[in-house]
Amino acid sequence: MRLLTAFLLLLLTFPAAAQKARTEGSGNAGRIRNGLYFGGVGAQIDGDQMSGYHKAGITGGLSSTVQLNSRWNVRLEVGYIQKGSRNRPDTTITQFPDLGANFQSMTSAQQQAYLAQFYQQQPRQWLRYRLNYVQLPVLVEYRGSEKVTAYAGVSFDRLLRATADYGYGYGPPLGSQFRQTDIMGHLGVELGFARRWSATMRLMYSLRDISSDGLGPDRYYFFATGRLGGFRNNLLSTTLRYYLSDRPTFKGQALFRRASDRSAPAPESDADGEPMN
């Protein structure tokens, strides 16, 4: 919560900093550009033996872009994002775990781990994970042209709620199955299509195992293949972004201006100040 509070305060101070720059006439008022974004997510969890971006989710939040120069930006965001995974077919459950006396005597965390391990060993059975996070990305952007911006960075995501559906609907929150913090790498591109609107496509991937001791030995499934170990969120997102101000400027000049934006050069003058023929 401290990290989230710090990001919110930082985002709130950006408009005040921009206003101060205008008041002082520094010419840098256009270097800060705030915006809103919202969109959809296709999610999977690498390591749960269910491949494919079959878990749909939503994302949205606030952003502030700081213009460093005519090409490079730094962007801070704070948002909400849904992650998770699901098996592709909505098949009828044909095998059920043993929910006898031994299951009833387990703790809640042990029960969830037992169910998760059972269904991970039968990937065509019904299984869904739904993970809700607060996401705090720090991104470095490179403006390749007026409309195309590429970026990369990292985010620190705080788990709000994790639930699983084993064929009976989403149950109570999972216990200790997932870490409270997910660190993700980001890689994406933003395409501007209007004065204040853009579309963003982004790939996000966990940089460490998101599972904890509650998931049992199956969380190390990938080690047997020589690939990354554990459970890792793997996301593709498409979002729309609305900027609260016009295109970025640098030192009072608009970046990557269209030909129609450029004023014609002033005519040459003779010594008396009259235009030359």
Word description of this protein:
By secondary structure, the protein is mainly beta. It has three helices and ten strands; from the N terminus they run αβββααβββββββ. It has an eight-stranded antiparallel barrel. A two-stranded antiparallel sheet has the order 9-10. The longest helix has 23 residues, at 2-24.
Keywords:
single chain; 277 residues; mainly beta; 8-stranded antiparallel barrel; two-stranded antiparallel ribbon; 14% helix; disordered C terminus
Topology:
Blueprint: H1 2-24, E1 32-46, E2 55-67, E3 72-86, H2 101-104, H3 108-120, E4 128-143, E5 148-165, E6 181-192, E7 197-206, E8 232-243, E9 249-250, E10 253-254
Antiparallel strand pairs: 1-2, 1-8, 2-3, 3-4, 4-5, 5-6, 6-7, 7-8, 9-10
Helix-strand category: mainly beta
Give the H and E element order. Answer: HEEEHHEEEEEEE
What does the main sheet amount to? 8 strands, antiparallel, barrel
Q: Would you count the extended β strands for me?
A: 10
- What is the averaged pLDDT score? 76
- Taking the alpha carbons of the first and last residues, their distance comes to 69 Å
Q: What level of helicity do the residues show?
A: 10-25%
Largest sheet strand order: 1-2-3-4-5-6-7-8
Shape: elongated
Counted by DSSP, the helix tally is: 3
Low-pLDDT stretches are: 17-29, 216-227, 273-277
